[in-house]
Hints:
By secondary structure, this protein is mainly α. The protein has a domain at 49-80 and 107-189. 58% of the residues lie in helices and 9% in strands.
Amino acid sequence: MGKTKPKERIQAPTDEQLLTGEFDKTSVTHVDDVQTTSQAYRRRQTRSALTHMNERGSLSDEQLLSAREIALIAEYLQRSVESRCASMEARVDCSGSANGALNESLRMMRLEGAYSEWRTGLPLPRRMVIDMVLEDNDMRGIAKRYGKSWHRTARQMLKDELDRWPALAKKYHASIRHDDKIIAHARLSA
């Protein structure tokens, strides 16, 4: 008779790993000679659901880029209303120009305008599509939370709304011209 290898024991993650969310604790039923239940640990999904959809071909590169831009501005807007603490550290900027900050603020203004119009045009429930873009995980669970079927309605709803974004972003990019930037810069200088 051949020797049987002893079962390898998987070392449980540390408390710190569990707190940081790298692992989920799940119950698993093993069927050997006797049915037993033990604790198992698995790595949490760190992969983006939208990236996975893109890799499978159900989401285009443009739609993925749209989702990332929408997530950027939505997180920016949500952060501006949350309570937070500030770090007072010295900033060394020898450029002598605030042009970079001005360009970034104009970009955010354009994105905010596009996001506002995009959000008002969302079908109900509006928050479902926003949550899909922001949470970027467990799309079926998000659709279920809002009482929608992922395969029948939610997936198509997400794709349609991501398709609307580039035209709105382009519209708001064109609405703020270089002259507007110069005028805003002059106001800051005065």
